[in-house]
Fold these 2 entries.
Entry 1:
Amino acid sequence: MKSVSGIGLKDVQGVYSGPEGKLWELIMGEQIHIGGLTSSMDLAEQAGIQAGMKGVDLCCCSGAGMRFLVRFRNVARMRGVDATRTVVELGRQRCKQAGLADRIEFTLADVCSSGLEGNCADFVWGEDAWCYVVDKNKLIAEAVRITKPGGVVAFTDWVEGDGLSQPEAERFLRFMKFQNIQTIDGYRDLLKAAGCEVTVAKDTGRFAPCIDLYLNMLGTQLTYDALQIIGFDQDLMAALAAEMAFTQELAHAGKIAQGLFVARKK
């Protein structure tokens, strides 16, 4: 697992309280994760998420994942936990507008110490967001603590692939505001150590094609919209595009990927 120093929760809160978070939503949609609805459907199918279940979404952002689960999987209730007030308030507003506020609730808290009752959820969910959490050991332990015995921890995340050098990691992690990035084997080991049977731990193969799509959209259809978000700062736009292009290189080399994980609590 590669890591850097000097990045923490405040940096992540800054991203999702400002223009950078809006830029990510512009290019990735309300579901700010690789693969959008296709990825969510895949994760839900592999995790066996069914009607009537109750779940917790850790690092829920504005709640798009929870709205997906309620609409498409007929989940009975969801509670999202996120440490950024801006996205929690936005999520409450969006759920109210969608008529889903009676089934979706938000908790403003550190996901490593959520304050939620133990063994309270049929499943814990996450989509491409746990990469922002510094202490992944504590995060996995909290996810498992919340999950009922026999329940499921199901998530996708950005992971380190093969051959990522420390200089490459340093540049990528500082751009993304990740203090570290876990490997597929690393997550598997953490889940096992926390008392889970890991049933799926794999590379989805979606990362590189999606990054290609985002860059194509930014360079054509969404250029003006992106510039508007960052105050028409063309130098900043060029710098962001360069970092995205670097991420694209890493993706095509297999050095960064999207991992999918399903684990059952014993």
Note: The chain has a mean pLDDT of 97.
Entry 2:
Amino acid sequence: MPLAFRSSLINLNHINFQDFNNNLTPEEALEPNTELMASVARTGILHPPILREQGRTCLEIVTGRRRLIAAKENHNSISTICLVLPADTEPAETLAINLEDTILRGNITVVEQAIFFQKVLEHMDENEATRRFLPALGLEPHPHHLHNLLQLLGLEDHLLGALHEGRLHEGVARELLSLNFTDRLSLYEIMELLSLSVGNQKKITATCRELSLRNNISVMALLCQPEVREILSPQETNIPQKTARLMQWLTEHRFPRLAEAEQDFRTFSTSLKLPSAVALSHSPSFEQDQVHLSIPFGNREELSRVWPLIANVLATK
């Protein structure tokens, strides 16, 4: 049975902004962005927040915290239209409304999902929460999915914020959870410093974990080596250059024989003194001894003129 809302003009001073019982967002993401602030200043709140009565003159926020903060900070706003739930509405139902509203927004994050289940499990058992809410998220009603979401809450607040905002990939976040506190933060510090893409986040995580195990040192110790600090410190080097150098250093230490083969190949290529337009390449990971020589031609006529000479050389090979 649908809950009974009433629409009411609410004085913003009567809203308890210190109550976070229904909030599904990491603390770092609570403040409204400049676009929302500007929109509320221009037109007011277009999508009514939902509140629940806490007393005769006090209300708690169910949905729309950022919209309400934007309205309160806009000095032209004193009150706004809200949907209000009665005080006897069950806490689990207010959380369910917030979840529904967040899903309808169209981009609910795994962090919001995890926070929702953490809070709703304070008011109902795991079986009921699994059966009732996982399908709404497009997941099978199996405890495995619930536990996977809750595991993410083991991350530190700023990592949760990065995951929520899309700066940290979910798969990488789960890999970081398998590391100890100092290794996790050391590795994430590099990701944040270099604004690493998803591909590079995965690559640096896998490489650092492998090198750590192989050399019996911590990830923090690996990333504190002088060579790494030298790569990261030069002010004249831009972020993409630092990223490329770090990835190369890690790859060389992860695959030393491959790095040695690559260096030998570069030396061999240099010794041939090839024209700048001519490219020499090897097979992937030197799996074969073949090499490939690439020679560009301006057009087909140019190739036709030179081809007899090339064909003659190939015939005598």
Note: The beta strands are 6-11, 15-16, 50-53, 59-63, 79-85, 279-282, 291-294.
